[in-house]
Amino acid sequence: MAIERVGIIGRGAVGVLYGNLLNEKLGKERVGFIADEKRASQYRDNPVFCNGRICDFTYASDGKSYGPVDLLLIAVKYPVLMESLESVRDFVGEDTIILSLLNGVTSEGITEETLGRGVVLHSIAQLMDSVKAGNQVEYTKTGEIVIGTNDEGKEPQLREVEAFFRENGIPHHVAEDIIYEQWSKLMLNCGINQICAVYDIPYRGCQSGQPYREEFRDTMEEVRRIAVLEGIPLKEADIERWLVAIDGLDADSMPSMRQDMLAKRRTEVDLFSKTIMELAKKHGTEAPLNTKLYQKIKELEENFR
Question: So what's the pLDDT on residue 278?
């Protein structure tokens, strides 16, 4: 089955970045942002800009009239995942391929269980430096979408997505071990996202020679240790790879959790440090760095009320 129509839920930094790339390549009749009618109306009245150019997006709220999409990209934050899945239910058919671009290692299972149809592949959105402020999205690095599956029965859908991304110029790669890659990204996020959020710093603060570099490294090492206990053999070389990657990002840009903090939005801390804390307890050990970051982020979130 060729992928003809794409649905996207989540008009944040990642959704706009990839939605704009697909819109320019496929045309607005083949790419739709999914939202309830109230939100869709707000989106139409307040268009979003990507790198200074207005995005002429299609917005869809009635899945029964719009029909199932061939590929669904879920680009929302974890706190609104469940309500977002309810919004897309009528846009998902038995053959719809679903990519959950959320951080962490749990959203695919939640998506499969909640929707009960469609084909969910594992995926990661990484290495972009997109930032959303108001209705403006800015980025210098497009990053990539990593895709994969540990289910041989989903190989045909994986190859369909690979071909679709290749044909339409969407940066991507197919992971040999997508679960390993997702854990590696979780390790990064527990470091870079949480530290930038707690200390209110851009990427610069965690780059080579900067004040929070060692805490960034040590937090990733703590996650690596827990991953090994879970049977995911992350290596020190994975930490070094992420250190190099962060050094290559725009020093004045910032990860999503700091963006959430500045906008006073609930963060994805439960996907990051809380996951590590629970797994540490499961294995009879501790995760003091992640525990400290979790507590500080929760304190900061309390001030949003």
Answer: 97
Q: Are residues 295 and 228 in the same domain?
A: yes
Degrees (nearest 5) of the Cα angle 81, 251, 223? 50
Question: Does residue 275 share a domain with residue 215?
Answer: yes
Q: Could you tell me the pTM of the whole model?
A: 0.89
Whole-angstrom distance, CA of residue 169 vs CA of residue 94? 27
Per-residue burial over 159-195, b if 16 or more Cβ lie within 10 Å, else e, is ebbeebbeeeebebeebeebbbbbbbbbbbbbbbbbb
Domain endpoint, select from 128, 145, 174: 174
Residues of the chain short of pLDDT 70, as ranges, are none
Check which CATH number belongs to the domain holding 219 and give it: 1.10.1040.10
Mean of all residue pLDDT scores within the chain: 96
What whole-number percentage of the chain has pLDDT above 90?
93
The alpha carbon of residue 132 and the mean position of all alpha carbons in its chain are separated, in whole angstroms, by 14
Residues 169 and 296 in one domain: no
3-state SS track over 193-211: HHHHHHHCCCHHHHCCCCC
- Show the tokens assigned to 242: 């992420």
Strands 131-133 and 136-138: what pairing? antiparallel
Residues 111 and 170 in one domain: yes
Please tell me whether residues 151 and 85 are part of one structural domain: yes
Q: Residue 238: what pLDDT?
A: 98
Q: Which residue range is the domain that position 215 belongs to?
A: 178-303
In a domain, 84, yes or no: yes
Two tokens, residue 231: 């049977």
